[in-house]
């Protein structure tokens, strides 16, 4: 037994003196790094004590990207660094992934928007990027700031190209840079309905809200002032949220054809109120014909309110109308 122990001790001493590791290095099939360079210890475990695991052996991929080192490349690294590793087959490999932080589409959009406004684009304009999923991936630990550079804004050319990079204050060699393309769209604020409105229904202020739409969604006859929409009557069913044209509304009908109305006949000397029948529809300020329900005579008057018509005439005509109303 003592002889066996002595033999084992001799073999261990011999192995150490020859620099041979007791445990063979093990390949790491996957590695995640945060540095610009891949180190030996990222690729192999159980390295010999005499081998420095921090030795840089190859450049790391860009942040968020992957790099695959095949068996041939790994053998070359192991041989150069005296690791004592040999591939078990040609399919041995290590996938190295560079950790990174993602700067998403929203930050890119805002950076381009700022650059265009600085170049002269109106602040109420909007931009649409051709690739709405564009993003930048930068190294972890670096400022997640973004800046864009674009040519001066030209309103006659809605298309634009921009160079976006991060971190914003980094030197050019240390930036992650992408190119984006898109279009700038001018907008205008207009009133729309918050609910559908039926034919003939009067639109109230509470039915209106202001929204910003692209100018190509708005026509020359679109109503752009809420005061020109409030208290108007819908000529047909009006949906919510869409631009409204001048021809879609009218002043509300206050006098309805064949309905009874109050007719006020005014002269310089007296004022007479009588009942009549409207011969046509009329909004406020419209001139409509009204028939005296007693004499069947027709006069013209101006609509002054709901079911109200005012006739201004001479004293003799008013006196005749009064006499006709009394005698009948």
Keywords:
4 domains; five-stranded mixed barrel; Type Iii Antifreeze Protein Isoform Hplc 12; rod-shaped; 5 helices; four-stranded antiparallel beta sheet; 35% strand; 328 residues; disordered N terminus; 24 strands; alpha+beta
Protein model, in words:
- The structure is a single chain.
- The chain is α+β, with helices and mostly antiparallel strands and 328 residues long.
- The protein has four domains: 76 residues; 83 residues; 63 residues, Alpha-Beta Complex (Type Iii Antifreeze Protein Isoform Hplc 12), CATH 3.90.1210; 75 residues, SH3 type barrels.
- The protein contains five helices and 24 strands.
- The strands form nine sheets. It has a five-stranded mixed β-barrel with strand order 19-20-22-23-24.
- Strand 19 and strand 20 form a beta hairpin.
- The longest helix is centred in the N-terminal third of the chain and has 16 residues.
């Amino acid at each position: 037994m003592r002889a066996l122990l002595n033999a084992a001790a001799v073999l261990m001493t011999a192995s150490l003196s020859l620099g041979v590791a007791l445990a063979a290095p093990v390949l790491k099939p996957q590695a995640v790094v945060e540095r610009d360079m891949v180190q030996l210890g990222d690729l192999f475990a159980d390295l010999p004590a005499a081998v420095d695991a921090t030795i840089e052996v190859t450049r790391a991929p860009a942040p968020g990207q992957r790099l695959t080192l095949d068996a041939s490349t790994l053998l070359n690294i192991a041989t150069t660094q005296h690791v004592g590793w040999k591939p078990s087959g040609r399919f041995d490999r290590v996938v190295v992934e560079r950790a990174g932080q993602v700067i998403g589409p929203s930050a890119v959009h805002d950076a381009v928007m700022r650059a265009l406004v600085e170049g002269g684009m109106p602040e109420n304009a909007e931009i649409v990027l051709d690739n709405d999923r564009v993003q930048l991936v930068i190294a972890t630990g670096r400022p997640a700031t973004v800046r864009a550079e674009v040519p001066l804004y030209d309103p006659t050319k809605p298309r634009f190209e921009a160079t976006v990079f991060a971190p914003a204050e980094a030197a050019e060699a240390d930036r992650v840079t992408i190119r984006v393309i898109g279009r700038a769209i001018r907008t205008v604020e207009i009133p729309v309905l918050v609910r559908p409105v039926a034919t003939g229904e009067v639109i109230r202020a509470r039915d209106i809200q202001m929204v910003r739409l692209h100018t190509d969604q708005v026509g020359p006859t679109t109503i752009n002032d809420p005061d020109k929409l409030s208290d108007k009557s819908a000529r047909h069913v009006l949906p919510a949220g869409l631009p409204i044209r001048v021809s879609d509304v009218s002043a509300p009908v206050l006098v309805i054809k064949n309905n009874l109305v109050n007719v006020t006949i005014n002269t310089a000397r007296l004022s007479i109120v009588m009942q009549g029948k409207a011969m046509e529809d009329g909004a406020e300020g419209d001139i409509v014909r009204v028939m005296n329900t007693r004499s069947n005579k027709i006069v013209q008057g101006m609509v002054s309110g709901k079911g109200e018509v005012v006739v201004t005439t001479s004293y003799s005509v008013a006196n005749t109308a009064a006499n006709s109303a009394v005698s009948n």
